[in-house]
């Protein structure tokens, strides 16, 4: 199949989420990145585009118009800018008939969200939001279990999303716009709270009817919330809670979901993404793995953890460096010697086994 | 940077490891797959090449000659055939001056291994072997710790690689050649034992001097080993053990490494790839994560587990399907509604917090 | 040292917590149980006392008077009745000058609590409340760490106490009085919420200044709360939360504590009582064990988990049965054959090692 | 029931395993310790006996004769001396018709073992060996599962017992006799290897037919083995392995058991004694807890981990100190204030819930 031609707004050099989107788009070969307005700074935009070998634009409006006009123009665009810069490009590309893949949260303000909604309604192009966690295999299986009523009636829902990276003052680029009310719109609740909210909504299929919240700005001088504790009430009578914090020292990215029904409970934690623990009312907990995921949302067999592919990619990237003449990391790439060592291992093992476990010298 | 032009031998449709190599080569954008002899069956070779949109060959010798002659010919080739089919293509491409990236183990027999070694010596092209586990970040950090003597003198080494998928009779394609002595050369010791051997060698920097082995074929009628228990002795006086089994029922892919030195111990398990547990002689165990990996062999921040990228890729692939007109999985892709729900969540949270936790209705 | 003479109120046959108190009192040999008013039913009281070989009373008031008058009367009394029956005996024994060891919570109503407080003030005897979880070694170490400011200023506190045993209708004796408002006073918040509250108070040294609560009775017809979600605010500006539930299906007894400060965080879970995880702001998590517990609140070396003693006791109890003529469980008690088998193991191991790993027949 | 009168040989002040036996004998109330030859040093023997308030002897032979002659003499004796001192007292008490409860391993030499065996055969009294690990609830359930063929035919067995406390030179009392060939008979294989051996034998019901061993003395100058790696072959065709080490730095007491059959596998680890993981051939792993233990070898409900009792006992012991006038640890014992705080918590929670979650001041 021909790859879909993809553009990108934001994601210039140094950006975190832009690079993630590019790898993700590349992984399965369904997309080819061909154009981008990668920075609001024209020079950086041009440099970044050149680096990636794609058509560069300094303005996303120009890009939307120009790409729509080209026969080989982009069919979809990824928007990976800070929250307050989602609405304008999303609207522009939707109007140009180009599909939009937008990072979360939708926008920094309710007005911006409405603009996007209006543009989406008026356009034939589609709008996608990258809540990536609900695309993990065991989360999809969790949703399937709830949908088929394996938990009975849901009573209790708990989502936590705990990070510690904003526990102190910090001047990182990532932190800067996320703690600026104008650009982020909200603090922890927007940046990670919306992930928690969507995760619960995705798996349970229910949206809470009421909530009660306590927001804090724990770090002196911070102008957005950095800790949020939210009680939830569902129309069904179920109760729930969200805790989203960016001042939970020592937590790297602690997302977790627990749901208790009348018949069974389930638990999933991002730090052990391959395990979905399901505990029926009367019986032992079961550890479901990808072997049980019916959505088949994975590329490698169960037990080859997600990350297996990254290990392979690490090798390929080191190999590329070596081929290109940079041997800095040659020691990290197994080569002939490793292969011969393995063969010596096999030979010695077979020889020893043939002699009932006699000690055999390994000759590499 | 221009991607390196890559070819592939083996990996036709239905192959496991060929698909893995292709994703890995694609992930960081350093390679472009342009040619392949993807199957020994000419028809399947042609079909598979067409599917991938690359130059197809029915014979790898022809491919080596033809590609070497083209100006835009491949610079490197990935060999992802069964073990007994490594030596012939590796030799052909090395002779043609094309870098070889070969799956492990090196070969099915010692003779084949020698052929490759001879060809590698005679060629300017390089030879790489994809022992992927030693490319994971925490394994690289483990190696660094041993290298800087953080464990003191190594005394005890233990590697286990336990799988259960060959515990019974099976007629899967993957099982078929792996249990055929002619094509695999060895059973568990070749398929997974060599991974265990290389992992220990990579992290410790030492090759065992002697070994004593007990090989079993637990499944009636099996002609290769399916369980291997191997005692190791190092020249340094250290002792070690490898247990590689493919009849360990319930084990999906249980690779683990433990090393005990005079000063500290380390432990790593593939099923929790992000954790390297280091226990000093006098003090509590420390759980190292990618935040401590000095090789920086990763793409996402600590706590965004390896697999995070796959989640994103799942979304991109579902989005591609939708864009191409297949809406089977539209319910798995968050869109505008998810975005608006998130905005409603933020608004309700802020309203409730502003009123000291009053219960607020969520208006999506 | 002479054991302290102990009495008991409540704890007749079939009671759970009474038996626990008796074992606990016996374990270190500091107490000798000599008297009891073990049931409000005179016949059961007499039978239970006879079974235990102690002086029996049918009325705790009589017991308080009689024991205070005896030269060899009890010095302390354990009160292990339902909540609403704490105040009367506690008051009676305090007035009689006898130390009181009372199960939690203090009482079923505020009035009863006041009575106890008044009696305690007026008496020379002491009053103890058995919040047993804060007596575990790693909890004591947690408290010590907080006290020495190892966490910096505390910002976030979270305690969960989740059980599932009341998720449905149940007619167990334990459930009956716990779900009766008259006898229990409160539901989950009294039975387990007070444990959570005390645990946080004990470790942090702080009592929350304000709270906001949401109580539910999830099971139809239940007259006390069975799920409690409570937000906490501390005078220091710290925030916290308690979740106590008895309808969390599949949770056997899930008590956990997490505290995040400005400098470090700690986490403790009852299901892994031997591990206290401390994560400093900049560096890997450390798993503290009893080897690090400075309160030395244990009886066996680190790594011999709590429960080690119960294993030994299981043996002693089975041995007692055998000695008394009941050989039902003789197969669970290792005897001579096990000893000879162990000796054969040692001999064969040494013989094999002496012959460089030759296979030796084991002769038991 | 009247407690069985118990004596003890060894276990004077400072001994580890003697104290463990005393607690274990006391826990369920089936034994009363009344006599002892607690040390080979007459003075220490007398002092230790006085401390425990029991009849003291300086010689176990005298003790056997004297106790057998008394009407209220001991009915059973616990032998908790170093290995080489098991045979003489065991023989003496068996001859005197007194039941023997002996710590493992049976003896230091095969000759001593034979003496015990002969004395046991000639006596009406019984001989018990305290392999305590096989008395834990989940180990007993493991044995039951194997016995009912839940694993199918056993193929693979693996036991590890790893400690690090002898990784360096040490002059502790515990280490001293354990590293003396004359008193211990063997090193790691006797001290912990026999536990591993018995655990496998107990759970599988099979004794290996052949073994192949590699013993090391890793610490310079050590005269007994401190690391043992042993390959096992069963008559059934099953294979197994034992690894017992006392130089595994950082391991406190790492005992584990894994068994793989044709139908399912099981895994148990002492560090998580409450979990028995059973993985069927086709399906997710199940985490069995005491809720599934059919031997009912426990004193508290599932989820109240073993160790729960020790927490209670910690309180009782601190309370005893306070009652006896030593208030050093008064801050560790919850009292009236904790009780009133709990009541304030309940009251504030109910008041807040009654006002729909309004923030309520906590009045303690």
Tag the structure with descriptive keywords:
homotetramer, alpha/beta, Rossmann fold, Dihydrodipicolinate Reductase, domain 2, 3 domains, 8-stranded mixed β-sheet, 11 helices, 22% strand, globular
Q: Helicity level of chain A, as a percent range?
A: 25-40%
Mean pLDDT of chain A: 90
What is the radius of gyration of chain A? 25 Å
Oligomer: homotetramer
The number of distinct helices of chain A, counting runs of at least 4 residues, comes to: 11
Just give the CATH class of the largest domain in chain A: Alpha Beta
Global outline of chain A:
globular
What is the CATH homology-level superfamily of the largest domain in chain A?
Answer: Dihydrodipicolinate Reductase, domain 2
Strand content of chain A: 15-25%
* CATH architect. name of the largest domain in chain A: 2-Layer Sandwich
Rounded to the nearest angstrom, the distance between the terminal CA atoms of chain A is 46 Å
Parts with pLDDT < 50 across at least 5 consecutive residues of chain A: none
Number of domains of chain A: 3
CATH T-level topology of the largest domain in chain A: Dihydrodipicolinate Reductase, domain 2
Number of strands of chain A: 15
- Largest contact between protein chains? A-B, 135 and 135 residues
Strand and helix order of chain A? EHEHEHEHEHEHEHHHEEEEEEEHHE
The largest sheet of chain A, given as strand count, sense and whether it forms a barrel, is: 8 strands, mixed
Which structural category do the helix and sheet elements of chain A fall into? alpha/beta
Q: Which strand order does the major sheet of chain A show? A: 8-9-10-7-11-12-13-14
